[in-house]
Write a structure and sequence with these properties.
Layout: H1 8-14, H2 16-27, H3 38-45, E1 49-54, H4 56-73, E2 77-81, H5 82-85, E3 96-102, H6 108-119, E4 124-128, H7 134-138, E5 141-144, H8 157-176, H9 180-184, H10 187-202, H11 205-216, E6 221-226, H12 229-245, E7 248-253, E8 270-275, H13 278-292, E9 297-303, E10 313-315, H14 324-341
Parallel strand pairs: 1-2, 1-3, 3-4, 4-5, 6-7, 6-8, 8-9, 9-10
The structure holds 5-amino-5-deoxy-1-O-phosphono-D-mannitol (M6R).
Length: 359
């Protein structure tokens, strides 16, 4: 039931702080240690490569999670689009482990990969929001997202829940493998800060609605740009905008603009820069300026410690690996209000189904 909300999507965006707190409640003990089934950690500890498999938003969540697995557990990790991997996968390592990300647990493209994984008796883990879904039943292990039912076709709280649960896995596995940096990653308190930060962003809806109406309501195309982890969020942000507002939106690695894409910039083209990392902030800003020099309307989503006076949307500071949990929220809201402003059915965009059970 969507209660007083006009659309499930807005309700689900607003639920994200509560989902973060629920994940903390489900996956941490009193002392702040992550709780993950030891059989999962044991199996992962034996792997020499982790293959993360997903489609759409789940694939995007994998791109963010892979960095934490590598950083805290030191296991080489690559992320793959399931519909590609099923027909064209890279040479696999000797001891592969497969992590399936799927909100619904029913995506046919991902299941196709799992069938091959099982034929080869490779170990697998499905992270899903739906208990007893096909992908969780057929994988060796399963972990629940605890995001609560997600009804809107555009995935929001499942994306942030996937990243948070991947972070739990990365920390738990890193500690299991005795990597000191995993001990130092105070994930429980970080997720608390994330929840508060999400709340602060969703409390500023009116400002974001105004930005959507000023910059996105009439445009036919838009670009999200960023580098590294901010690029991973850019492609998720662009997917949100295209699937519900039908704006042709793309997420680009900002350094790639000058290698071709900048030719598309015209007077008034919205270019949204995501800037959350010290290492890349200056570079993304200068790429953004290059687009402004060619007529673009720049919009920025920036972490507080990097913010400048001219920035558009300022988000609270959190751990560098967790910034997607906050930077995505304004993008979800920009997509929502653009679609709403155009009078579209936000929850049921044309041509799309919530769960894609065909290949
Ligand atoms: O249920 P799944 O996570 O496996 O679904 C994967 C995609 O179909 C899904 O994320 C889709 O891209 C969403 N509509 C994006 O908002």
């Amino acid at each position: 039931d969507k209660g007083a909300y006009p659309y499930y999507m807005l309700k689900e965006i607003d639920e994200q702080p509560a989902v973060m707190r629920r994940i903390v409640g489900q996956y941490f003990d009193q002392a702040g240690n992550p709780q993950v089934d030891e059989a999962i950690l044991d199996a992962l500890a034996k792997a020499d490569h982790l293959y993360i498999i997903g489609a759409g938003t789940s694939y995007h969540a994998g791109l963010v999670g892979a960095r934490m697995i590598e950083k805290y557990a030191h296991i080489p990790t690559t992320v793959h689009i399931s519909s590609e991997f099923a027909y064209d996968h890279p040479m696999l390592s000797e001891h592969p482990f497969f992590l399936f990300l799927s909100q619904s647990g029913e995506t046919a493209d991902s299941r196709q990969v799992l069938v091959e994984v099982n034929e080869n008796h490779w170990p697998s883990l499905t992270m899903t929001n739906v208990d007893k879904s096909t992908l969780s039943r057929e994988a060796t292990y399963t972990m629940l997202l605890h995001a609560g039912p997600e009804i809107a076709v555009a995935s929001t709280k499942a994306y942030t829940a996937q990243i948070a649960v991947e972070a739990v896995l990365a920390k738990a596995l890193g500690q299991f493998l005795k990597h000191p940096e995993a001990d130092e990653f105070d994930l429980r308190s970080q997720l608390g800060m994330v929840a508060n930060g999400m709340q602060a962003i969703t409390d500023s809806k009116d400002d974001i609605e105004e930005i959507a109406s000023r910059f996105l309501s009439k445009t036919r195309n838009a670009f999200y740009i960023g580098r590294a982890i901010d690029w991973s969020v850019s492609i998720e942000a662009a997917l949100k905008l295209k699937e519900i507002s039908y704006v042709q939106a793309e997420g680009f690695a900002s350094g790639e603009l000058k290698h071709g894409t900048i030719a598309l910039i015209e007077d008034g083209t919205p270019v949204i820069g995501i800037i959350t990392q010290d290492k890349t902030a200056g570079l993304t800003r200068s790429n953004l300026e290059e687009t402004v020099a060619r007529g673009a309307n720049a919009i920025t989503i920036v972490s507080r410690h990097l913010a400048q006076e001219t920035d558009t949307i300022i988000i609270p500071d959190v751990d560098d690996n967790l910034t997607p949990l906050l930077s995505v929220v304004p993008a979800q809201l920009l997509a929502y209000y653009t679609s709403l402003g155009k009078g579209y059915d936000v929850d049921k965009p044309r041509n799309l189904a919530k769960s894609v059970t065909v290949m």
